[in-house]
Every structure is written in structure tokens, then in C-alpha cells.
Amino acid sequence: MRLVLERFTHNALALLAVTTILFFMFRLMPGTPLAAFISENLNADQQQAMLEQFGLDKPMWQQYFIYLGNLVQGEMGLSFFQRRPVTTILLEVLPNSLILTLTSLIIAYIFGVLAGAWLAWKRGSWIERAAVPAVLATRAAPEFWIGMVLLAVLSFNAGWFPSGGASSPGLAYTSNWQRIASWDYVHHLALPVLTLALYLQGLPLLLMRSNMLEVMHEEFVTMARMKGFSEWRIVIGHAARNALLPVVTAFALGVGLSMGGNVVIETVFSWPGIGRLLVQAVSVHDYPLAQGAFLMIALVLALMNFVADLLYMVLDPRVSHGRKG
Amino acid sequence: MAERAEPVSTAPAGWQLLPVLRRMVAMPLRDPFAFTGLLIYILFVLVALFADQLAPLDPMEILFTKAGKLAANLGPGADFPLGTTNLGRDIYAQLVHGTRSALAVGLSAAVIVATVGTVVGLVAGYFGGTTDAVLMRIADMALSLPFLPFVIVLTGFLGASTSNIVMAVALLLWPNSARVIRSQVLTLRERAYVEAARVTGASSWRILFVHIAPNILPLSFVYAAIAIGWAIITEASVNFLGFGDSTSVSWGMMLQDAFSSQALSRGQYAWFVPPGVCIILVVVAGFFISRGYEEVFMPRLRGR
Amino acid sequence: MILDVDNLKIQYRTRAGAVHAVDGASFVVPEGRIVGLVGESGCGKTTAVRAIMGVLAENGYRAGGRLVFKGQEIDEAATRKLRWRDIAYVPQSAMSSLDPVYTVGAQIVEVLTKRGGSTRAAAARRAAELFELVGLSERRLADYPHQFSGGMRQRAAIAMALALEPSLLLADEPVTALDVIVQRQILDTLRALQQRLGLSIVLVTHDISVVAYLCDEVVVMYAGQVVESGPVREVLARPRHPYTMGLRNAFPDLMSDAMALVPIHGSPPDLAAPPPGCRFAPRCPFAEAACRTEFALPSGKDHFSACRRDAEADQLRTAALDPVTWQRSLSYAAS
Predict the structure, then answer these.
(1) What is the mean pLDDT of chain B?
(2) Residue C12: which domain range?
(3) Model's pTM, two decimal places?
(4) C213 shares a domain with C149
């Protein structure tokens, strides 16, 4: 329990550090310090509201605490160009990013774990020796380039998939859930997910393979063989079960990391997610929106780091059950 | 225990460093993958050095056909091995000259990451205490920043120069190498020869740089090789998103150009496939070399 | 006789060629007796025992010889059926031999249900019985391996080994990693179990005092071969092979007269390219020229010794008690 608290504090502090860095970064941008939250795009009332809400006429250190207070309440200011609360805009697109990330990761990890274990099984064969560099090549290719190639081949050329966006124009839905569950959405989701999964599978694959190779040499695997168990029981029940631990943690970390990296995928496929929002906001200097998008990504990162810590603690009996001696 | 203070053999700097350097140089000869990686690097370096000779056309020059029309979107042919962009620029020339920017970004980022990471790792690991705590907190902060978004925000607001990109990449990549090197230093610190050096009164800095650093060197190279790849991909991504310098040629800029001028729908594979392939080659080469140095640092007893 | 090891040859494929880890070792395990298999590291004792279980490293293989268990010759395929049901193994370090992510109880139940055909309920009851047999509390079944102390882990490993009521137990350095007091306890437990269950045990160790304490018979191995074997009291009181004489000197607590520790100089030969003739000759203070070329097969009735100069064993033994004799072997080692 003490360990849980420690990890929580650690990640919370990291998040605090990020927000602080962000606070100062945006204040030091070209333009007046007010420019972080106020621009001519907003009408006079809105400008006044922002001035009061973020205490923009007060000294810097006071602004900092007001800023933190607002963040905790979910107040991130108004978007310069959409003239709507940033928080609302973010929450609208967050599900799209989450669905993209989670779907891709799940597919990538299931494939990666199975393929990695299989490759470890086939150690020394030519398949294994050819596969490792091939997988490294998938990790070496820029995600967006994989997306571009797939787009060109499967969408523009073959016409199997739409070329972008999350929905076809002209379709109406009664609720968000219905929209997400519709075939049209899935059809649009397919290529981005395929691209991401292709890029992401390398890590679990190589990790699982390397873990399996190590575990197979452990004494307890030899013992399992001495007990006369079937090969299946030895490899799956004992070896894989041990080899899987780091992979599960990597999955949790992957969610956090992916949210940041999805920026490019969302741009290639015009997928309406947080990443694309960030890029658009930065290009038009919509500071509040850019800050908000960045913070949201950082929040997911910190959260998933914490989840990864928790998973590790829970899944490894050596940590969850202390020494009794 | 000896009664007199016998000088234990604290070997002079050269002797510790030489065997390590020898192994590091010999490594590609034993590891076929690392050797391939090295060849790839050498190839690209040569291309970068002789870019003007290999591709005499100016990559940014807008070209016209003999008939006076804009030489736009031409397919691969005798005049233009990879065809032209929609603004009539020679793709092949862009690819060849793009090598320079890629290598410049990769190598400078690698040098910074390796240097900063190694120094921080050494200092934090050896001196421990508050120095260690402070340095590791800073490392944690850098790690909690989402990588690409941070680079985007930095270049988006500070400007799109290559040096900004390199700086942003280096800023976020050094913690990984620093942490690993630090934990290695922690183990090495307890080794017998370090104890011996301490007993005979060698100064901390001497111990650090003469006895510990040489053993860490392969690890620095591991992370340097990885950093090259990351920097090139990040630079390409930033350029692709439109935050790069569109007047200087780079592979990322080529991909951005191709994407925004609908090369995908026109099926102009010769435009956007080669830059990606080049990136893959350079990054994979980096992976191979880094794996080779990993082996030097920590040889696996079982044959791979 | 429950196990007959006849001219066993085990080799490992390496880049340097074939390593002859066990090169023609023969010994028998009488039913209901404890046989000590003793020798220094690398002499092949662990390899021999693993070969009996049929579980060698990837690059290991049986290159010759026979294994006869309960009158049936067993080959590598046949050993799988016998594993754990007839022949069980107690490892050196139970910490790394138990899967860290399952409780110890779960692992015993696994053996009982998957190899013993038992139901889960019956298996749980039997697991509790086994723990009681080795002196562990039933509550400990729900603990993970890392929660056990060293001695308790060894007991658990023994309990695990006895799960399917094997007739032969192969114990590979079961007490080496423990401190002396716990060692004695575990050895006493082993003897009690052996008497109660009528087990036959092969105890592999490099510590001759363990052999003296627990075993009925002893088999001395050197460089992949058996150099001497026989009843424990006989072999230790009247060793006939120079190596055994030297081994005895290395454990002065066995000698009635206080003696200084006398090491045997030199080291065992490279098993990738074993020398012709007697393998101990380079380190033997009694070696003659012929020893280097001629190979001596074990001779004797119940007490076997593989030494050319077996007839002079008594004189050699007396000389071996003098430390000066072993200094002389230095010059031989050098040549």
C-alpha cells in the first residue's frame, strides 16, 4: 500500500512538473503574457471573462496558482478560433483518440505476443533469423509513412477504405455511442488502426521473444520438464506466464506513449483526435487549445505510467506478497 | 592486509581505455548485422559528401521541360530518375541532398544525447546523494513530457529551424541513457578495482574518468546509435506536420510535400516511397549497430 | 538393484567440438540404499544424474552406454514416462527451481493432478500430507516460493519430489546452499524419509562429509569417469584410488588425527580433449609413466577402484597421509 502511494505521488508530481513547464513556456512565447489566454478573436466580453478567470492582471506567481486551480476544475480557457471552452472541444475528440489507441494496441499486442512466443520457439531457424531484422524495419519506418503507403495502396488505388476522417459526410446519428458502433466509423477506423498496429507490434514481439528465450533457460522450466509435463504446459503455463509480465506493463506504458505519437497518424488520416487538434492549434497559434491538448496528452501519459506501476505490483507475486521469511 | 601501503596497480588511463576501444572497433567485424549497419551508414555519408556530384540538379529549382512547360509530376524517366514534384522539382536530387540534413540532424542529436546522458549518468551514479536525486528528478520531468507533442509545441512557437528540432529531441532523449548508465555506474562503483583506487588516494574525478568511464563507453554508443534513428524520424515527423523549414531539403519535407500535393491519390509512388525507404535504412542501421555495442557491453553467454 | 548405470557416455556439442562430460561411467544403486555421487565441479556427476532423468541441455546427448531401471533398459524417450512417477529430482537451489508466479501448493497440486491423475480435492489433501511429511506447516502451501527461507524451500522441493511416490530420488547437491545446521536437519529428514518410505536415493555432492554422514555407498567421479566406488565406511577408511585419498585429505574433520588441509594441486583436464590413459595422472603423486598411456578399468569385488597400482593400495594410502607426498605432485602437474 505504501508502494502504491509512493508511485501515485511520483506520477502526480511529474504531471505537476509538466503543467508548470507548460505554464512558463506559454507565458514566454512571443507576444504579451496575456496572449496565452486572450486574443482579438474573442469578443470583449469573453476577453474580460478570461482576464478575470485567470487573473491575468495579477503577478505571475498568483497567476500560477489560479491556473492550477482552474485546471483542477477543468477550466482551460476559450479557444481563440472556435470561441468555445477548450475543455468541451477536447472532450468531444478524446473518445476518437482513445478508440484509435486502444484498438491498435490491443491488436498489436495480441499479434506481437503470439508471434514473439512462436519465434522464440523457432529459435535458430532461418525464419527466426529473417524475422528479427524484418520486425526491426517496421520499427524503423516512420508511422506516418506506413500510413501514407497504405493509404495510397488500399484506399486510393484499391478503393477498399475511405481516405480520411472518421465518418462519411451526410450521416446522422442519435447518439455518440451509435456513431462509434456504426459500420461507417469502423470502416474509417480500419486503415489508421492497421497502420498503427503494424508500427506498434514490433515492441511486444521483440520483447516477448527475448523474454521467452531467457525464461526457457530458467531452472524452473528445466524442473517442469523433469516433472514430465507436456511441452504445451511447460511453454504456456510456466514459461509464457513468466515472460508475459513485462509485456503487460509495456502495454500500459504504450497507451500513454501512443497518445503522444498518434499526432502524425491522425494527421495522415485526418482522424479527428486530440493529436490532430494539437497540430491545428499550434499552427494557428490558438494557445489555449494547444495548451489544453498538450496537457490532456500529458495527463494520459502520467495516468498510464501509474497504471503500469500498479500492474507490475499486482502481477508479480514477488512484489505483491512481501517476504515473510 | 599488508602493513605498508603498497601501491595497488591502478592502471594508467590508456590501459583501461585501449581494450575497450579495441573491442568496440572490432565489433562490426564479428557481428554481421552491425557490419551491414556500418556499411549503410558509410554509404549514406558518402552520398551526403558527394551529393553535388551524384545529383547535379538543384533540388529546389523549379524546372521546365524543353517545350517551356512546368515539368510537373513527371514519372521516372531518363531525365529525372524518380520523376518530379508537382512544382517541377527533381525528386532524385531532393532525395540525395536530403541525406545531408538527415545525417546532420541525426549525428548532432546523437552526440548531444550521448554526451549529456553519459556525463549525467556518471556523475549521478558515482557521487550519489543530492546530486543524484536532483539529476534524476530532472530526468523524470523530461520523461514525463510527451515526446512528439513537445517537439511540435517548441518548433511551432519558437520557429522551425533544424537546431530547434535537434535541441528538442536531445532534451527529451538524454534521460534514457542517463538512467541506464547511472545504474551501471552504481554496480561498477562497488567493484574491487574501484575500491583499490580509492584506497590509494585517487581523486574521485580520476576514478570516474579513468576507471569507470571506459567501461561505460559501449553503452554510450548504444544510445547514440538509437538517438540517430529517433532524431531522424522525429525531424521527418515534424517536417511532415508542416512545422519544419520548407525551404531546406529533407526527407521529411519531401513526404510533407508529396502528401499535401495529393501524390497519394495520383499514385506517385516514386515520390513518397524512396524517402521512407531511406529513413528505414538509416534507422535500422542504427538499431543493428546499437545491438552490436550492447553485445560488447554485456556479452550474452548463449549464442544468438 | 534399482538402477544400473552401465558405461554411460554423455557429450555436449560445442563450437570447440564435443565435450565428453561423462565418459564411460558405471555404478549401481542398490534398492533402498543411499548412494553418494561425489567429485569436484565439472566431474560429470550432475550431468550423469540429469541423463538419468532424461533432461539434458539442448546441446547434450547420450553417446553410449545403458541405463537399466528396475530391470528395464530406458532410453531417452522412455524416461519421460518415468519422470517424477518413478524417478524424481531434488534440485540444488529450490529458489530458482520453483516457478515464482505460482504458490508452492499450486505447483504440488499441478504435479498431482497432471501427472498423477488425481482430482483437485485429493491433490490438495495429499499436498498437505507431503508438507507434514517433510516438517512444513500446511498453511505454507498458499505461499509463494520467495516467501520461504532456504531450508524450508529445500523441504518443499523434497515434498514436491515425493508427490507421486517415486522409488528413486535423485538429489543434486540438495544442501550445498544451506548453512551447516540446516544442512544437518535436511539430511536427517532425508534419512528419515528414506527409512519410512523405502526410497533409494542418489545424492550428488562435492562435500565428502555429507557423504560420510548420510550415505551407505559412495561413487567417486573424476573428469567424467568413476574412479572408485564401494561401501562408504570402507572407501573412506581404506581408499584405494589416489584421488579419493586426496579428497579425504581435503576434509580433515573426517580424519581422527588432526591434519592440516592438503590440497590436490592442479586442475581437472579439459573434457573437450581428454588425455589418454588415466585422467588423474597429471595430478597424481603416485603416477608412473605407464599411467599416462594405459587406462585402468575399475577392479575389485564390492569395492571398485580404477587404479593401475591397485595392488599397492595400502602402501600408497600410508604415503598419502603425509602432506609431503602431495607436494611432489606439483612437479608432475608441471611436466
Answers:
(1) 82
(2) 3-220
(3) 0.83
(4) yes
Instruction: List the subunits that have 3+ CB pairs under 8 angstroms with C.
Output: A
Tell which of C13, C101, C152, C154 to mutate to test the A interface (max A CBs under 10 Å).
C101
- ipTM of the prediction: 0.84
Taking CA atoms, A310 is separated from A4, A256, C236, in Å, by: 7, 14, 58
Same domain, C67 and C213: yes
C159 in the same domain as C284: no
Q: Are residues C59 and C142 in the same domain?
A: yes
- Is residue C230 included in any domain, yes or no? no
Using the Cβ of C53 and the Cβ atoms of chain A, whether some distance falls under 8 Å is answered with yes
Cell numbers given for B98:
536530403
Contacts with A321 from chain C: Cβ below 8 Å = 143-144, 146-147
Please check whether residues C201 and C99 belong to one and the same domain: yes
Q: What is the pLDDT of residue C127?
A: 92
A294-to-A155, A229, C16 alpha-carbon distances in Å: 31, 52, 58
Q: For residue C227, is it within any domain?
A: no
The C-alpha cell that represents A266 in the structure block: 491522425
CATH code (residue C101): 3.40.50.300
CB contact under 8 A, C147 and A316: no
Note whether C270 and C146 are same-domain residues. no
User: Nearest residue on chain B to A162, judged by CA atoms?
Assistant: B265
Cα C138 to the center of its chain, rounded Å: 30
Tell me if A156 and B140 make a contact (CB, 8 A cut-off).
no
Domains assigned to chain B: 34-51+86-297 (1.10.3720.10)
pLDDT of A33 > 70? The answer is no
DSSP B208: I
Residue C211 CA to residue C116 CA, distance in Å, equals 32
Q: Say yes or no for a CB contact (<8 Å) between A142 and B147.
A: no
E runs forming strands in chain B: none
Among candidates C97, C99, C143 on the partner chain, residue whose Cβ is nearest the Cβ of A324: C143
Facing residues of C66 across strands? Answer: C6
Q: CB of B298 within 8 Å of any CB in chain A? A: no
C275, pLDDT greater than 50: yes
pLDDT tier at A31, thresholds 50, 70, 90: low
Which contacts qualify for A132-138: CB closer than 8 Å, 24 or more apart?
A132/A206, A132/A209, A133/B33, A133/B284, A133/B288, A135/A201, A135/A202, A135/A205, A135/A206, A136/A202, A136/A206, A136/B284, A136/B287, A136/B288, A137/B280, A137/B284, A138/A198, A138/A199, A138/A201, A138/A202
Indicate the number of domains in chain C: 2
Cβ atoms A86, A263 nearer than 8 A: no
Same domain, yes or no: C165 and C270: no
With a CB cutoff of 8 Å and minimum separation 6, the contacts of A58 are: A66
CB of A87 closer than 8 Å to CB of A80? no
In the predicted model, is pLDDT for residue B74 greater than 80? no
| Angstroms from A4 CA to nearest CA on chain C | 20
Of C191, C220, C249, which closes a domain?
C220
C-alpha cell at A147: 500510413
Whether residues C210 and C256 share a domain: the answer is no
Q: Which three cell numbers stand for residue C226?
A: 568413476
Residues linked to residue C203 through DSSP beta bridges, in sequence order: C36, C171
Burial label for C90, CB within 10 Å (0-12, 13-18, 19+), is: buried
pLDDT tens digits for A121-146?
888 788 888 888 899 999 999 999 99
DSSP 8-state code for residue B75:
P
What one-character DSSP code corresponds to residue C77?
T
Closest CB to B279: pick one of A136, A141, A275: A141
Alpha helices in A86-201 (DSSP H): 86-121, 126-140, 143-150, 176-181, 183-200
Residue C233 lies in a domain: no
Provide DSSP, C248-281.
HHT-GGGSSS-----PPPS-PPPTTSPPSS-TTG
Cell digits for C129?
A: 500430507
Residue C226 lies in a domain: no
